[in-house]
Design a protein that fits this description.
4% strand, 135 residues, mainly alpha, elongated, Non-ribosomal Peptide Synthetase Peptidyl Carrier Protein, Chain A
Length: 135
Amino acid sequence: MIKEFKEFVSKGNVIDLAVGVIIGGAFGKIVSSLVDNILMPLIGLLLGGINFSDLSVKINDTVLNYGLFIQNVVDFLIIALCVFFIVKAVNKLTNLTKKKEKEEAKKEEKPAKSSEVLLLEEIRDLLKKSNKKEK
């Protein structure tokens, strides 16, 4: 069981995933800071000086902070947009690589001979043999 776990952990995909999670967490913090400290104050200013973090509704003893929810939605949209562009770029690079590989494979491939060409080559070879026998 330990050996299997060691093989699982040493595979490249697991390490790539761990790196992605760590970088994603750091990226999330940067985006949250951007939204909380720059974008939302600017949006609030444009909407008449609204501070989104203060937007809330009190129902009995419960406070619903819908302003914070709006900030989190903006966070999500920015992160989703960034991930979309990253995936789009990676797909484009992958497609370019596959296209180059296909082009190289086509260059290396010899075109398949038609049945007429094969028949003519066979006739040619037979004529060569018969000419050698006559000499």
